[in-house]
Amino acid sequence: MEALGKCGSAATLEQMSSVVTYRNTDTLLLLGQARGITGSGFGDPSERGTKRMVDLALQPAYPASARLMAANYLARAAKIPLDTFAGPLAQSAPTEPDPWIRMALATALGKVKRPVAIDTLVSWYAKKPTTG
Q1: 3-state SS of 51-83?
Q2: Which residues are within 8 A (CB) of 100 and not within 5 positions of it... i.e. 6 or more apart?
Q3: Taking the model in full, what pTM does it have?
Q4: Residue 66, pLDDT above cutoff 90
C-alpha cells in the first residue's frame, strides 16, 4: 500500500482512503494505509485522505505505529486543511498518552487557524509537564 501511495494517482488515493473496514488488529494493513496516504498526500493531499488520517491518529484502539504515522502526516503535510478537525484535535491532543503521538498532534494543532486551537495550546503549555 505504501508503494501505491508513492506511485498511484489521485483516484488511487481516494480508493485507499475510503477503506474503513480494517480491524484494530490489522496492524500491517492500517500501517500500510497510513504510509500510502502519507506517500501520496505530501504531493497532492485529499480531503478523504486527511479525514482518514485524523481518524487513525485520534483513535486509541488503533495500533500505535499506524497512529504515529497518521499523526506525523497531520503535523508535516503542508497543504492539508485541518480547521475542520479543530475540535477533535483540541480534545484529543492534550490527553494522548503516547508522547510521540502527542507531540505530532500538538504540531498539527498549531496549524489550525481557529481560536480553540490556540486556547488549547496555551492552556496546555501553562500546565505542569507530565512524565512519559
Answers
A1: HHHHHHHHCCCCCHHHHHHHHHHHHHCCCCCCH
A2: 68, 71
A3: 0.84
A4: yes
